[in-house]
Design a protein that fits this description.
Pfam families: DUF218 (PF02698). InterPro entries: DUF218 (IPR003848), Rossmann-like_a/b/a_fold (IPR014729). This is YdcF family protein. It comes from Candidatus Enterousia intestinigallinarum. The chain is an alpha/beta fold. The chain has a single domain, classed as Rossmann fold, CATH 3.40.50. 40% of the residues lie in helices and 21% in strands. The chain has 5 helices and 6 strands. The chain has a 6-stranded mixed sheet, sandwiched between helices. Helix 2 links the parallel strand 1 and strand 2. It starts with a helix and ends in a 6-residue tail after the last helix.
Amino acid sequence: MVFKSTAPRTCATILPDDTIFVLTGDMRRIPFAMRQLRKYPDADLYIIGAGANGSFEMARRVTIESDSKSTYQNALAIRDIALRTGLDRIVIITTEDHMNRAKYLISHELPDAEIVMCPVPLTDMPVTKRLERWAIEYIKYIATLFDIKEG
């Protein structure tokens, strides 16, 4: 499956002071992001689309964005944060099946930013469920290419 083979399989290099954005929607993403964050104590983490308000302190700053409800709205929220804070490099954490569409939408909103992808593996999931998720995500990706961003 060409679509699956184009998604990154491993996390690209994260720099010590990078800003990390984790897209919610799968229970694996935030714990994975927190494990990555432990490696980079100077990094900031934004949890995008969390459905809650506020910020909280852990060993570093974690900010929760709660307004976005779709991958497209996540991309808009990331764009707004990146422009407001002057970011030209961002790290995106999402599940491997979601990576292509998330990168496409975020790249469209931030064409001049360097986007570092860090996929959450789905290896703990039964093969049939993984295939189903990849198929659904492929359909959503094709719809996105036709400028259908929500719905």
